[in-house]
Amino acid sequence: KATVSVLNWTHLLPLQMLSRQLPRLCAAARPVYAPPAEFGDRVKNMDIKIIDSTLREGEQFDSADFTTQDRVFIAKMLDRLGVDYIEMINPVASAKAMEDCRRLAELNLKTSKILTHVRCDMRDVKAAVESGVDGVNMYMATSEILVAHSHKKGIDEILRLADQAIDYVQKHNLEVRFSCEDTFRSDIDNVLKVYRGVAEMGVDRIGIADTVGIATPLDVYRVVKTVREAIPKEVGIEFHAHDDTGCCLPNALMAVEAGATHIDTCVLGIGERNGIVPLGAFLARLYTINKEAVMDKYNLKCVNALDKFVSRACSVPIPFNNCVTGSGAFTHKAGVHTKAVMSNPGAYEVLSPEDFGVERRVNIRGKITGWNAIKARAQALQLDIPDEQIQIATNFIKNHADSQKISDEAIDTILIQLASGPRISRGDFMAPFAKAMQSGQDTNNPAFQSAAQAAVEALHSYQTELARLAIASLPVQVDNRPYAIVRLEGHIFDQEVLNRTMDICVESKCDFDLVNVQCAKRNEDMSSCDIKLFSTTQSATDVEDTITAITEMCSERGCEVVNITEQSKTSSTPASGNLAAQVLGTEAVAASA
User: Fold this and answer.
1) Which of 481, 488, 482 is nearest to 563 (CA)?
2) Catalytically annotated residue among 240, 242, 337, 400
3) 167-196: buried (b, 16+ CB within 10 Å) or exposed (e) per residue?
4) Is 337 a catalytic residue?
5) 403-455 pLDDT, tens per residue?
6) Closest by alpha carbon to 53, among 76, 85, 30, 77?
7) What's this model's pTM, rounded to 2 decimal places?
8) pLDDT for 360-408, tens place per residue?
């Protein structure tokens, strides 16, 4: 309202007065949504129980096909981790499903209770009770679109069926939850009627489900808060969030803040379509809010083993940006970052990898690496190399990385070769001159200064050549795949030739590199680019087909394609002999000694 009132009368103000008053007016405006002052307390206080659904929701993941042994291992690891509940598939799904529900129920886990997820149908509910689990999670669709395409029942009929099923479960002294499937596309009045009704029936908790991932964090806060105020405090709220639009994790946190008591997760976030809240990511988020409480309740080192096991069982790689266990989670590359992290990991890390059973990694292979990272690697290898030598070698490594990839093993080879040569540091080289200064000799003497400068230059030349030869000793990387280089010439930008060429290359079976681009300064001038195509077969038919497609496309747009393939040859010169003598000369080595 404040913002609207400003817009309504600012046209009456002279421009100079408006410019002076605008900061004050903006400061006076209030946001549409203002969280309460205690916002964040429920997450901070860890008023949360985790229901891991890897063995139910996770089973609906595209490539998931867990064996009995898989389920037993995952359940035991989840129990060791400390999750409160483990949700299993519906026992009526198959004889094997019933057998595995019973198997897990008989494990006598220390921490985790076993639940099963079933329809609000007496056949399912009775089977769930017979399976020996600790609780039954039942659901029924309430959104208009799902009701129309599933059970086609009204709210009163849903409540009648729920009453029958809930009563049966309670008579067997099991926990019971009732969930409105597709809550966020359901009419809020219908949802509240169902939740109030099942709460009166005595359910342990109700379930709020973002079945298709449509809710925003503010939607979640509003709905959960509304439901929380509509049912008794002793009735828990379970929240189930899908990740179709990338909001499942923030939605889970907002649900807790609004009053949810239980959060559904899956290892690696697997599940139907894009899956649900990833267990590791949820724990990592809680860790940053209340580290002590999370460390006290959960054995976080189990996260790594669980992610790896589920990744293998589902035949999917762990994403590089996966929280905690992704290859990039604790990898540092930029020079400024690596120096700070080696001094104090907290400078660029909010999670401690040691707490999660994973390792920090410093990437020293790139063109943006810093010499401190190279020095740390040398120290890890127990190599004694002067700082100035490492600084010079780092520049060579970065330049080398500009032209071709360099492995960790190659870095180690370079460092070992540097350490194996004569160790001459600036301090060693300048010792005679320092001694002369201490004895009171005239250090302003031109001959003395000239000798000192020559010594410094000789040392730098030696260390530079030592680094160059260490790089030169690396084996040459040869790509023996058949290839071709084509040059595109013409108006390749305004005719979208280059864009379409990239599309053709990406869609082809061959690999490719954009080797060179020459962009004309004026529209009327011609531009060009070179593309190197690598065959993935010995016959090179994929390269031929790609060139044909590029040529046809360019011809339609008035551009020319020229095959400029050339076979390049490279060679390396190994280091040999007395390196110091090669660089400084025999007399210089003798003098330095």
Assistant:
1) 488
2) 337
3) ebbbeeebbbbbbbbbbbbbeeebbbbbbb
4) yes
5) 677 777 777 777 777 777 666 666 665 666 666 666 666 656 777 677 777 77
6) 85
7) 0.69
8) 776 555 566 777 777 877 777 777 778 887 887 777 777 777 667 777 7
